[in-house]
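For reference, the entry.
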Amino acid sequence: MTRPDARPWHFDKDVLDAQAAADGWYALLTNLSPEQASAQEVFLPYKGQGLVERPLPRLQGPARRRTVFLQHNRRIAALITVICLALLVFCLIGRQVRQALGSEQTMRGLYPDSRAVRPTGRMIFCQLSSLTLRPGSVTDAPVSLINRGVQARLLELLGVDETRPGWLGT
């Protein structure tokens, strides 16, 4: 049932065409002049920000599950600093392993089916999470108890010599 005061409606083709022509366009603001950088030189680094932002959901996941009450701005800044440093270490470990792998940047053993995959920080930490360190004593150095071959390979790629006494800085 239509209302007696209802006006008929229609699509405005000109407006739709104008909107379609602008789809995918957005403005980037920079303080560089056209002489200092071309549009491409501004656009390409912007498009690369996805690489920087990709780990952010991992950071936000645990933060969404826990409520943290901080009473001072100093503590908020300190918490954000610690979280950012942890994320940086997480990303650097993944990068170090991929660089050490060379041009192929894939390895086997990170998944149960042993397919070749590009290692990520999450995969690396998952594999190393069951690594055990037997504390040293006055006469014995600490020893890492490696229970999987992939752990030894990851430590090797990270440049960690688990056989050298005091490899954890002790």
